[in-house]
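User: Here's a structure from my thesis project, written as structure tokens. My advisor, Dr. K., wants to see whether a designed sequence matches the one we expressed. Can you design one independently, without my sequence as a hint?
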């Protein structure tokens, strides 16, 4: 059933780097449409990145319909826009500059659209104070509002689809389904009994040192690495090209390169593994909804600002789990450390960290889901 308001919505996404920008915007678009019946147009400048996480994307199409969502290639054109082109809600992602002609058309609408600047996720305290603040356009009669995802009920909460937790619980309660999923990725019955780890990180992570610790450790580890992730370091371990299907075992460690998979399958990978290494923003949030232990590799920022953000998150998340703090700081280059000793401590504490992951999930559920929170906020502005 279509809602009274909003009925139509546009998202503007510029891919700054990698897959998180489009990953989050695509998740937003799908949820607005599927769960709230809103007609969504997604403007995105990089269809090739989009296709990596959603193979149905046609990289040559200026306009295409994907699952009921209109996807428009945003090739830097300003173009002619009229009020008829403007939806009820306009979301600019991470403060992108939407076309000036589009903004002029927004200002001519009566009533004017609700304009949202969707910001990045951070656990820092200031976020609560900035969430939902208005910002007036210097010239036009338009106000945009900042919307911050976050970890408390004074923020927008976290992106979570309505059925996500139920689907995950059913999958995790079904060992045959998990084994079949991992089996399709090449995991053998023997590897199924090992500690199963997924690895998604930036190239500068100390992967070589971690592989050494796993190789020499007492517990068998199977590490599943999507193709293209930390390629050089993975190739050094494999001693061959790190293409999907490549695999090598040394000591207690097996490394398997798996295909970079569609977004929905990636969730299943996180649900099936005992420990997930994630990065950026979207995979980090998905790891939290997997309710399993994870290590976050934060997106690097100038002047090491990301270390402040990392610490802010760990302070909230890593309660009574010192090994998780130590390991995370070292994984992110915030501190020096011996990977083998850090791993030994982390491994010993994994059961406690797993319990914490479940408590955290319950805590995050209480904040509602971001899309519903955003729509409730938008309705207060009309
Ligand atoms: O790819 P990321 O590093 O993306 C981002 C962007 O670089 C962005 O500019 C920056 O602002 C942000 O990080 C902090 O990491 P992220 O956010 O985890 O996004 C990865 C997306 O890719 C996510 O939607 C999950 C998806 N994915 C798949 O669909 N299949 C896969 O196999 C993997 C490994 C990921």
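Assistant: Designed independently from the structure alone:
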């Amino acid at each position: 059933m279509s809602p009274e308001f909003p009925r139509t919505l546009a998202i503007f996404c510029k891919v700054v780097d990698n897959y998180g920008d489009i990953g989050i915007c695509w998740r937003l678009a799908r949820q607005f449409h599927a769960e709230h019946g809103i007609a969504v147009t997604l403007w995105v400048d990089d269809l090739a990145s989009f296709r990596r996480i959603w193979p149905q994307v046609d990289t040559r199409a200026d306009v295409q319909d994907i699952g009921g969502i209109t996807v428009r290639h945003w090739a830097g054109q300003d173009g002619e826009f009229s009020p008829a082109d403007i939806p009820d809600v306009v979301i600019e992602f991470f403060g992108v500059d939407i076309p000036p002609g589009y903004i002029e058309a927004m200002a001519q609408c009566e009533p004017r659209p609700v304009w949202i600047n969707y910001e990045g996720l951070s656990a820092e305290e200031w976020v609560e104070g900035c969430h939902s603040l208005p910002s007036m356009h210097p010239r036009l009669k338009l106000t945009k509002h900042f919307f911050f995802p976050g970890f408390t009920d004074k923020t927008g909460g976290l992106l979570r689809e309505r059925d996500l937790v139920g689907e995950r619980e059913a999958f995790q309660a079904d060992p045959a389904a998990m084994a079949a999923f991992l089996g399709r990725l090449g995991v053998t019955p023997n590897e199924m009994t090992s500690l199963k780890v997924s690895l998604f990180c930036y190239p500068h992570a100390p992967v070589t040192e971690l592989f050494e610790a796993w190789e020499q450790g007492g517990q068998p580890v199977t590490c599943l690495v999507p193709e293209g992730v930390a390629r050089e370091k993975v190739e050094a371990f494999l001693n061959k090209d790190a293409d999907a299907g490549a695999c090598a075992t040394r000591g207690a460690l097996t490394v398997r390169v798996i295909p970079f998979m569609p977004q929905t399958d990636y969730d299943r990978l996180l649900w099936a593994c005992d420990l997930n290494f994630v990065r950026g923003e979207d995979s980090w949030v998905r790891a939290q909804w997997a309710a399993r232990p994870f290590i976050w590799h934060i997106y690097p920022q100038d002047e090491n600002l990301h270390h402040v953000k990392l610490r802010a998150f760990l302070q909230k998340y890593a309660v009574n789990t010192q090994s998780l703090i130590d390991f995370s700081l070292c994984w992110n280059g915030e501190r020096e450390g011996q990977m083998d000793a850090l791993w030994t401590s982390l491994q010993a504490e994994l059961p406690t960290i797993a319990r914490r992951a479940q408590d955290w999930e319950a805590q995050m559920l209480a904040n509602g889901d971001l899309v519903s929170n955003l729509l409730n906020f938008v309705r207060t502005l009309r």
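When you compare it with your expressed construct, this may help: The radius of gyration is 22 Å.
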